[in-house]
C-alpha cells in the first residue's frame, strides 16, 4: 500500500506533535515560591472546592517549530509563528496540594522530537514505545523512595513542595528531552470545581494533557493492511485524501441523474414520522444512500453538504428510519425470534454470575448506527433530539419503543430508547445506570425489568408481524399508484404524439379519398360526355350512309367517290377514337372505384385508430390533470425538470404524495413495534437478550478477556435494542478499540467540516458504510500543530498541500469521492442541500452570496422575533483592552440586552458571539450583574441558572455552529492597532457565514467600520440596514 502508507504514516507522526497547550486565561500563572495550598485557599461557593493543575516543563512552542525546521533543513520563513506555551507533563492537586489519582498526563510532543533525532521517522509503532515509557515513568513517580514499606513516600504521595515539583520536572525532562531542549518553568492553574456528591463515587478526574486520541488507531490501521486489506469505504476515503481522480457528475448539468433517482420505487419504505416532506436534494441523498449503500453486501462512502438551515438532521432521521424499517422487514421473517440468536460464549460478571453471550443472525445485524463528530455538541444533539416527542410532530401519541422505560429512565419527553450518547466512560456509566440498573433516588421501570417481566406470546408476535406486513403492502400499493402517475405522464406525451400522428393519417386518408371521389366524378362526367359525342358521331355516320351517292355516281365519278370515302373514313376514325377513349376512361374509373373502396376501408381504420388513441389521450389528460391537482408541485412533468434551477422545484420531492409520507411514517411506527416485540419475544427464551446485555454493560465498565467475535456479538445485540449510538471521534477508539475493520454497520459523521481528515480514519476503517455530512464553508478544523511542522512532515512523505493541509477536513475529503454534486465557489461539493429554512433576509442573502455563490433557495417562514433590536451595523470605536476586547462595544451590547430584558420581562432568545475567545469571556463577567439586576423586577434568577444562560448564549462563533436563535449580536472588537486580526477573520467567508446563519430573524454587528467594513466578506455588512 505505498500511497496509503505515506498518508497514514504522515498522519501518525503529526498526531504525536499535537501540543500540550496551556489554557489562555488568567487562572494560569507561573508558580512562585509560595505554594497556594499552603495557605490554604477556600472556594467562594460552599458546594465547590479548590483544585490545582500543575504544568511541568513549560516552554515556547516556537522552539519545537525551530527544531523541526532545522532537522528537515527547512530554510523558509514562517510569517505567522505561534508563540503559545506548551508543557512536558501535568497533573492535578486537591485543595491540600495532594495528587489526585488518574490525572497524570505526559505530552507526546517532546518524546516525538527525540524520535526524530534518533532517526525513527519511518517507524510506525511510536505509540507502543511511548506508552511503555509513560508507564515506567509513572511507576517511578509512585514507587516508594524509602527503604521501609511502612515509611512509604513517593513523588506523588504527600503534599507537594516546590522542591518535589522541581524534582519531578527534572526527572521527566531527563527522559524526554532532545538535543536543543529549551529552558523550562512550572506553571499552575487555580480553579473552583464542584465537590463530589458521594465520597464513594469513582474518581472521574483525568489529565489536562490530552494527547492525540487517534494514534493507536492509526498504528492499528497501518498494521492491518497486510493482514486483511481495507474495506470499500475506507479505501475510497484514503484515495480521496490522496486526491486521486474520481468521476464527477455535476447535477446542475445532468438532471437526468436526479430524475432517475427520484422515482417512486426508489423511495425507502419508511421515513421519519413527520407531516413535512423532504426537499429535492434531501430526498436525492436519502434515495441514493438507500439504493447504493443499504444492501446487505453493499459498502461505501457518501457525502452530503449541508449549508446552514438546510435540514442535515432531518436528512439523517429519514436515513435512520429507512434502515430500521429495512431491519424490521428481516425480523418479521422469523416465526420464532429466539431462533435468530445463537450462543457463542460467556462473560464473567461476578463470582456468582457468568451470563451467556448470544449472537444475532447476520440478517438483522446490519442496522447498527454510530453517529460521530469532533464536535461534542453535535454528537449529543442528534442522540438527544431523535427520541423527543416534539421531533415526531403529529405522531407523538402513536410512536413508541420501550416507551415507559424511556419516559421514566431517560426523559419524560422521550418516546423511545432509539438513541444513546456513549463514547466516554461517564456517558456509558450514565446510560447503564439509567436504563439498566435504575435510579437510586427514585423507582423507575428499567429495560432490565421489562425484559424480566414481559414475556409476549406467539400470538402477540404474529399480530405485530401481520400489522407490519399490511402497512408495508399499503406502502407498496401507494408507490405503485405514484409510479402509475409517472408512467401516465411519460405516456401522455407519447400518446399525444401518437394521437397527432393518427389524426394526420385520418386527415390524409380523407383528403386522398376526396381526391379519388372527385376524380371519379369528373371521369364519369367525361365518359358521359364522350358517350354522347360518340352517339353523335354514330348519327353522323348513319346520316352519311343514308346520303351515299347513287351507284353510277359513286362508281363513275372518282371525285365523288373519293370525297365520300374520305368523309366516311373521317367519321369512322373519330368514332373509333371516341370508343377507345371511353374504354380507357371506364378502365380508369374502375381503378378509381377500387382505390376509393380501399381508401374508405383505410379511412375507417384510421378513424378507429384515431378514436382509440384519442380516447386514451383524453383519459390520460384527465388522469394526469387529477394527479397534477393532487401532487401539485411534486408533479414532475417535462417542465418540472426544465426548471431544476428554481426554488419551486428544489423545494419538492418529485412523484411524492402526502399519502406516501403518511404511510411511510406509519410503517416506521409499526417497525418500532416489531423491533420491541422481537427483542422481548426472543428474550422470553433463555433471557438471551438480557444475559448478553449484562455481559456487554459489564464489558463497557471493566473490559474483560473476550474474543473479538464475542464483543461484536454483544455490540450487535446492543444495536438491536438501542440502534443509534453517538460518540466523539476521540472516544470511538476507546469505546470500540477491540472492534475490527467493517464491524460498524453504519457510520454517520456530523459537522464533518470541523474535523481533520485523520480524526475519522479509525471510525471509517471500522465501518461498512459511511455517510459524511457537513459544510466546508462553515467552521474549519481547529489545528493546533504548527504549520511548519505539518509542511515539513508532508514534504518528507512526498505529499502536497492537496493531501495534507490545515484547511482540509473530513467533509472536503469525502466530497472528492462523491460522484454526485455541484461546483460551489470553485469547490466540488458532494450532494449539496439547497433549500434553506432558518434565516430571513438580509442574513440569508449575505451568507448565500459570500459562501455559496447564491446556490441556496430561501424557504424560511418569517415570524415575530420578540426582539426590539433591528438589523444593522452599529458603529462603535474605542481602544482595545487586552488583545481584542473594546469596552465601548461591550457597553453598547449590555444596553441592548438590558432593553430586550425590560421589553420581554425575561431572558431573550439571543446569542452574543465573537470571532475572538477573549471577548465572550469578558462579556460573561461584565454582563452577569447587569442581567441579574435587569431581571430582578420581573423574576428572580439564581447564579447557576444565570451562568448556564450566559454559557449557552455568549461565546465564540466556533462554539455556536449548529445552533440558532431569534437574534444574534456579533461583537467584532479590535481597533486600529490590532486590526491585523480582522484580516485573519476575513480570510475566508466561513466565520461570517456561521455568524449570520445563527440568526433567524435579527442580526446586529457591533464594531468599528473603519476596521471591518473594508475587509473581504465583512464589507457586505454595510447592507444590513438597507435590506
Q: Concise description?
A:
It contains 33 helices and 24 strands. By secondary structure, the protein is α/β, with parallel strands linked by helices.
What's the average pLDDT? 91
Could you say how many structural domains there are in total? Answer: 4
Structural class: alpha/beta
Can you tell me the CATH architecture of the largest domain?
3-Layer(aba) Sandwich
Sheet with the most strands, sense and barrel status: 6 strands, antiparallel
**What is the beta-strand fraction?**
5-15%
Global geometry: elongated
Radius of gyration: 42 Å
- Number of E-state strands: 24
Broad CATH class of the largest domain: Alpha Beta
Level of helix content? Answer: 40-55%
Oligomeric form = single chain
What are the segments in which pLDDT stays under 50 over at least 5 consecutive residues?
Answer: 199-204
Q: How far apart lie the N and C ends? A: 56 Å
Key descriptive features of the protein:
33 helices; alpha/beta; 1027 residues; 6-stranded antiparallel β-sheet; elongated; Rossmann fold
Describe this structure in words.
- With about 1050 residues, the chain is an alpha/beta fold.
- It has 4 domains: about 20-210, no CATH class; about 225-455 and about 655-835, Rossmann fold; about 460-625, Helix Hairpins; about 840-1025, P-loop containing nucleotide triphosphate hydrolases (Rossmann fold).
- It is about 50% helix and about 10% strand.
- The chain is built from 33 helices and 24 strands.
- The strands form 6 sheets. Strands 1, 2, 3, 4, 5 and 6 form a 6-stranded antiparallel β-sheet that branches. Strands 8-15-14-11-13-12 form a 6-stranded parallel β-sheet, sandwiched between helices. The chain has a 5-stranded parallel β-sheet with strand order 20-24-23-21-22.
- Strand 18, helix 27 and strand 19 (about 855-860) form a beta-alpha-beta unit.
- Helix 2 (about 60-70) runs parallel beside helix 3 (about 110-115) and helix 28 runs parallel beside helix 29 (about 920-935).
- The longest helix has about 90 residues, at about 460-545.
- The radius of gyration is 42 Å and the shape is elongated.
- The two termini are about 55 Å apart.
